[in-house]
């Protein structure tokens, strides 16, 4: 498991609880040493005791030596630079599981595309892990379902068998495009829901943003070749509901901070070094939508709040004032 943030550490624990011997790579030796010494990752997952069959290191070569599978749990915009370091040590032929939810700024590439191109990993080996997976709840062994998306169904099933536990139930799909567009876009919608919550607008507003948000993500996904059914499943609706509703979501929390007048830089800093991907994804998803001629009003509005100084209340008003259309 490459990346010892909150999700990387949690998924490493899932794999270890499923009976795998796991090596967790941390960028900082202090994090790896802390895990070895205390069996906890105090920087990212305070108080969660990690299993004995999970070993932590900051040495990439040691982490990747002889492994049967690799998982990548670094933020989306750092995936490219990290892969240039990782790629020579990733064993040939093993599945590579992407935990990151994002689309690369500038190139518009989804994470599986970055992994294939920069990591020199054949597409059928790349598996996307997504779904309603708030790390802290899973680390506390609270039950969740999840999704493993891979164009090669047999590889997804291998990974499914390797990581299923009593509290972690992964399903397989072959729609990688839908899984990644849904997983990236829901963080933007969660920012919008956080803004609405910060403005104390209530559940009708939240439900409206979630439903119309899912609609615009699905439109973009279908333009890129995704299966619309993916957006009605765990990777779409499931992840959207969890992230947009939970106070544990970093994206929703950040939206709430914007709503009460905090600037973007201060709100990002208040996340304490943990990534809220929606801040970048509102830009990269908007770019992708423009490139494909898809109207994504909520994504556009969140972008305007983050980068065009639009006031949060004006953001909601701009969505309500749009021309009336059939649903
Ligand atoms: N936390 C969750 O609940 C959750 C659940 C599902 C998916 N995800 C996704 O997983 C990915 C990782 O999320 P996370 O919650 O583990 O993030 P995090 O901020 O908690 O941790 C990120 C990890 O990546 C490492 N890293 C390596 N290179 C980096 C760089 N250049 N810049 C910053 N960090 C770098 C950090 O040291 C850290 O260990 C994100 O794309 C996120 O959207 C998170
Ligand atoms: O804490 P967030 O907002 O990054 O969301 C976490 C996960 O993506 C939920 O599935």
Task: Characterise the protein shown here.
With 327 residues, this protein is α/β, with parallel strands linked by helices. The protein folds into 2 domains: 171 residues, Rossmann fold (3-Layer(aba) Sandwich), CATH 3.40.50; 137 residues, N-(1-d-carboxylethyl)-l-norvaline Dehydrogenase, domain 2 (Orthogonal Bundle). It contains 16 helices and 7 strands. The strands form 2 sheets. The protein has a 5-stranded mixed β-sheet with strand order 3-4-5-6-7, sandwiched between helices. Helix 8 runs parallel beside helix 11. The longest helix has 23 residues. The model has no long low-confidence stretch (mean pLDDT 98). The structure holds nicotinamide-adenine-dinucleotide and SN-glycerol-3-phosphate. The site of nicotinamide-adenine-dinucleotide has 25 residues, from helix 1.
Structural class: alpha/beta
Compounds present? Answer: nicotinamide-adenine-dinucleotide, SN-glycerol-3-phosphate
| Cα-atom radius of gyration | 19 Å
Give the CA-based shape: globular
Strand order within the widest beta sheet = 3-4-5-6-7
Helix content: 40-55%
When the domains are counted, the total is 2
CATH topology value of the largest domain: Rossmann fold
The CATH C-level name of the largest domain is Alpha Beta
Distance linking N and C termini: 43 Å
Give the helices and strands as they follow along the chain: HEHEHEHEHEHEHEHHHHHHHHH
Number of strands: 7
- What can be said about the biggest beta sheet? 5 strands, mixed
- In the CATH hierarchy, what is the architecture of the largest domain at level 2? 3-Layer(aba) Sandwich
Protein name: Glycerol-3-phosphate dehydrogenase [NAD(P)+]
Binding site for NADPH: 6-7, 27-28, 44, 101, 135, 250, 275, 277
Binding site for substrate: 101, 250-251
Main location: cytoplasm
């Amino acid at each position: 498991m490459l990346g010892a943030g909150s999700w990387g550490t949690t998924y490493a624990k899932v794999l270890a609880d499923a009976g795998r011997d796991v090596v967790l790579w941390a960028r900082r030796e202090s994090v790896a040493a802390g895990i070895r010494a205390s069996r906890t990752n105090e920087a990212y997952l305070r108080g969660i005791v990690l299993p004995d069959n999970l070993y932590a290191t900051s040495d990439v070569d040691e982490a990747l030596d002889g492994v049967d599978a690799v998982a990548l749990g670094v933020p989306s915009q750092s995936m490219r630079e990290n892969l240039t370091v990782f790629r020579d040590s990733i064993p040939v032929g093993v599945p590579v599981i992407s935990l990151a939810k994002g689309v690369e700024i500038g190139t518009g590439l989804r994470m599986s595309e970055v992994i294939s191109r920069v990591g020199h990993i054949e597409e059928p080996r790349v598996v996307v892990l997504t779904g309603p997976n708030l790390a802290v709840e899973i680390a506390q062994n609270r039950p969740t379902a999840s999704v493993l998306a891979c164009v090669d169904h047999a590889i997804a099933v291998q990974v499914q068998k390797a990581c299923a536990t009593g509290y972690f139930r992964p399903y397989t799909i072959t729609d990688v495009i839908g899984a990644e567009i849904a997983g990236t876009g829901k963080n933007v919608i969660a920012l919008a829901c956080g803004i609405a919550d910060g403005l104390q607008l209530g559940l009708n507003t939240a439900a409206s943003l979630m439903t119309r948000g899912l609609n615009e993500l699905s439109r973009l996904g279908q333009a890129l070749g995704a299966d619309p059914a993916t957006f009605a499943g765990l990777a779409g609706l499931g992840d959207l509901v969890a992230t947009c509703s939970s106070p544990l979501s970093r994206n929703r929390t950040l939206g709430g901070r914007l709503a009460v007048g905090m600037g973007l830089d201060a709100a990002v800093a208040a996340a304490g070094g943990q990534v809220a991907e929606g801040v970048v994804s509102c830009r990269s998803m908007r770019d992708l939508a423009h490139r494909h001629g898809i109207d994504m009003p909520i994504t556009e509005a969140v972008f305007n709040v983050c980068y065009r100084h639009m006031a949060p209340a004006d953001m909601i008003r701009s969505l309500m004032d749009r021309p009336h259309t059939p649903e």
